[in-house]
Amino acid sequence: MDGYAVRGAGPWRLGGHVAASSPTPPELAEGAAWSITTGAAVPVGTTSVVRDEDAVLVGDLVQGPAEVGRHIRRAGEECAANEMLLPAGVEVDPPVLGVAASVGLNRLTVIPQPRVAAVVTGDELVHQGPSGPGRVRDAIGPMLPGLITRAGALTTPVTHLADDRTALIDTLRSADAELIFVSGSSASGPADHLRPALSALGAELIIDGVACRPGHPQALARLADGRLVVGLPGNPFAALTAFLTLGVAAILRMRGLPLPSLMVAPVPGGLACHPRSTRLVPVRVTGQGVVPVGHGGSAMLRGVAAADALAVVDPGPASAIAARLLPLDPGARPWGV
To answer: Are residues 120 and 246 in the same domain?
Structure first.
């Protein structure tokens, strides 16, 4: 605080000046004042700092309100020596960097961002312009890099493959990444080569399908060298839900972060439950609860493009009157957390 360092009750007789770059000034005598600028070391014996705007100068005397301890920052008031400031596992964001710098650290030991590769397969895919008869415009390839980045990982350009098992095996073997997403080959049809490719590479299949709709054909495998492979369905909304659940969970674990809790919100109109699987439904969030936006088929992205979140609807025999909210942005903090 710019003003006057004083000792005792006023008025105070003005002595010298303390600048921010000044060495430690001499001790203040009782009834003395030194002018001082923000960031300067207060003289020993200072009991208060009177702000410039509150001070009145009469000759060499300073008058003004002085509350004991006011506008003085004491050594150790934020933390004591050897006190833990933050536990291991905290994400390093700008405030954490500021805290580290304030206590004199130049380097932090961190878990680096995982390297992630994305592979999109399909003979039928068109990557530019409109689709034609028997062809489908690729909607998953444009989504994946942004999803991966928002989840806190590093990504490379998307690799596009035809429905070819040998090409997929070669791509998985040579990918320079700790985590590989493969879209379009995770089901069990004649053109779905992910599981045979994983078997050929000696991979361990950890998750073989998840009881959710859409997105149930997803998979998680570990290659012999420890790299992870996540299989995403070929339908765009199903691929997105698989990424937001299994994919984000894998990335967060690789970053050393826990899965966040999800807020529960009411569903005024109710949402139909699937008898055996969890449903993921695009919804808008309102002051009264969540409202479905429709267009939630596994091949559709129109609904999620207009939605605020996905309602996680547990299986059951009746309609759900409440649901957890899964953010569509993998880098966002869930509501209420």
So the answer is: yes
